[in-house]
């Protein structure tokens, strides 16, 4: 009887050791993977949902009027947004491309950003949960979405204009 219990215990321990080795190799693979890039807005191939907004100059902006655009979302009190702003202001628009900046947050806090962006882009100021950021599914700032001629996201650049992260965009 004792020999039977010992043999059973040995088999159980061998099974446990085998499973631990399997788990170790799986964990090792997970640790070696690069971290996933968070999705901050609509993904490539998706279109913004229908929306209507008015820019700071009183012109209407809708999902039907923004094809072939670079749409960048900023917010006040965001260090990453402040770092991305000079790059955004220095980047020339491609031929025919609209440059749209959406500044999200309460009006007094966003006034400085709106004024700095106004000469370089078509600017929309909206509160959190506003129509443009909702249509684009914005979940973080800053984020840039390029729209193709059909109004679909060509790529999501996340953060600033991080061309190094995305070889598809020049």
UniProtKB/TrEMBL annotation:
Which Gene3D superfamilies does this one have? Answer: Glutaredoxin
Identify the domain of life.
Answer: Bacteria
Q: Which InterPro entries match?
A: Thioredoxin-like_sf (IPR036249)
Q: What is this protein called?
A: TlpA family protein disulfide reductase
């Amino acid at each position: 009887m004792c020999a039977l219990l010992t043999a059973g215990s040995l088999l159980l321990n061998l099974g446990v050791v085998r499973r631990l080795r399997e788990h170790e190799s799986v964990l090792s693979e997970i640790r070696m993977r690069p971290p996933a890039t968070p999705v901050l807005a609509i993904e490539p191939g998706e279109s913004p949902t229908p929306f209507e907004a008015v820019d700071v100059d009183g012109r209407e902006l809708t999902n039907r009027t923004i094809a072939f655009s670079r749409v960048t979302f900023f917010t006040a009190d965001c260090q990453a947004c402040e770092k991305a702003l000079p790059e955004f202001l220095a980047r020339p628009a491609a031929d025919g491309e609209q440059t749209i900046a959406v500044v999200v947050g309460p009006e007094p806090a966003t006034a400085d950003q709106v004024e700095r962006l106004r000469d370089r882009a078509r600017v929309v100021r909206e509160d959190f949960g506003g129509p443009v950021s909702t249509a684009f599914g914005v979940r973080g700032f800053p984020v840039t979405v390029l729209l193709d001629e059909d109004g679909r996201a060509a790529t999501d650049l996340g953060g600033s204009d991080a061309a190094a992260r995305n070889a598809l965009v020049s």
